[in-house]
Structures are given as C-alpha cells and as structure tokens.
Design brief:
GO terms for molecular function: hydrolase activity. It is an enzyme of class 3 (hydrolase). It comes from Fontibacter flavus. The structure is a single chain. The chain has helices at about 15-20, 45-55, 65-75, 90-100, 110, and strands at about 1-5, 30, 60-65, 115-120, 125, 160, 175, 180, 190-200, 205-210. With about 220 residues, it is an alpha/beta fold. The strands form two sheets. Strands 3-2-1-9-10 form a five-stranded mixed β-sheet. Strands 4-5-6-8-7 form a five-stranded mixed β-sheet, with no helix packed on it. The longest helix is centred in the N-terminal third of the chain and has 14 residues, at about 45-55. The N and C termini lie far apart (about 35 Å).
C-alpha cells in the first residue's frame, strides 16, 4: 500500500473530514502524526472520528501520539499537577466534551495505546522527529523527544515525516539536509490541513492541502 500521512488536526473536525475525502483505503495506509485535539472547535468529534476509523479500518490506519495527546493522558490519569494541558488548549477541549455530553475518559485506553512512531525500511513517521540532542527520544519528559522536539532532525537514512512545529505560511516543507518533511501547516491557525501521499519507498506522489473550514475555529 501507498502511504497517506496527515498533519496536525487540532480539533479541526470539518477540515479533517474534507481531507479524508482524498483517502483511498483500498490502496493507501492512513497515518496521522498526532495532535488530534486542542485549539480548534471540535476536538471530541475529531477524536471520535479517528477512533471510529481505526475500528473500521484497523489494518489501514495508524494514529500516532502527539504531545497534546500525551498531555491529555496525563490529565485524565490525574497526574497533571501544574495544569499543563489546561494551559495548552485542554480547558477548551474539556468544555467541548461537556458541550457534546461526552466523557473524555472513554478514550483514555485508546490514547494510551497510540504508538510514538511508524516505520518501514524507507520511511519514519512521528510527531516531532528524531534529533541527536534527545537523551531518550521515547521519553515524554525529554524536550527533544519524538513528542516535543523543535530542533532540525538528524538524517537517519530514511525519509522522516513530522508535524508539531506549524509552518505558518501554510506550506509543507522539505528539509534536504535532514531528509524530512514537516506537514503541520497550521490548520488551527486558519491556514491548511495537509496530507502527503508517498510510495512505500518514500517517493513523493502528491501533497494535498485543504484550507481550514472556518467552522473549526473559535
């Protein structure tokens, strides 16, 4: 199967739904780089959509953990003593769950089981990418980890695909030196939600950018 990798959704449900119209589950594995929640108007609906897609297309979908899912998990486990998630969009997300009469605890087990990365022999996909400064790239407390890194990526001999750091001009960026794409095109900032289609060997097929649906923004 080819790969269809989608950037940071951040509660932009209607925009996410529009981009999914371009996914062919018969020929493409869908991989989303994390940060489904926070900032946009419809985090519960975006989360539910991802959850139901994985139920329906288990072998064709991968939803990776982003730093916002990590913060949400910590909060739901009662371990967010500094209200870190609340100050980074979580307070609004909780209000949206109340508005929709939904319980975020229903998703805790699913969120906890999100993988940090997906890879094959040619492509490595994560939320924030591999950087040489990380003591442990899989440690959510490490600021250079796969969840939090904002530094240029190391060239690992595979094409990396990441999100996390918004490209404020709305364009996905390829960095030749590190051999990686950043596809966070600031959907929650009113720009675009981007999907990149690749062959399994990492060869680029197509970049698709959908303008943010204004219903998704506060």
């Amino acid at each position: 199967m080819n790969l269809f990798v989608i950037g940071d959704v951040h509660g932009c449900f209607h925009t996410f739904l529009k981009l999914l119209e371009r996914w062919d589950p018969k020929t493409e594995k869908l991989i989303q780089v994390g940060d489904l929640v926070d900032r946009g108007n419809f985090s519960p609906m975006a989360l539910r959509l991802a959850f139901e897609l994985q139920l329906a297309f288990k072998s064709q979908t991968v939803f990776l953990m982003g730093n916002h899912e990590s913060m949400m998990i910590k909060f739901l486990q009662g371990l967010d003593f500094s209200n870190h998630w609340g100050m980074n969009g979580g307070n609004q997300t909780l209000l949206q769950f109340e508005r929709d009469n939904k319980d975020p605890m229903d998703y805790l087990d699913w969120l906890k089981n999100m993988p940090l990365f997906w890879e094959n022999k040619n492509v490595y996909i994560s939320h924030a990418g591999l950087n040489t400064n990380a003591r442990n790239p899989f440690d959510p407390q490490d600021k250079y980890s796969l969840l939090w890194n904002r530094q240029p990526l190391q060239n690992i001999g595979k094409l990396q695909i990441i999100g996390h750091t918004p490209q404020l001009d709305g364009n996905a960026k390829y960095h030749e030196h590190g051999n990686y794409w950043n596809i966070d095109t600031a959907a929650a900032g009113g720009m675009y939600l981007t999907g990149i289609k690749l062959k399994r060997d990492g060869a680029l097929i197509e970049i698709i950018s959908v303008p943010t649906d204004m219903r998704d923004l506060r």
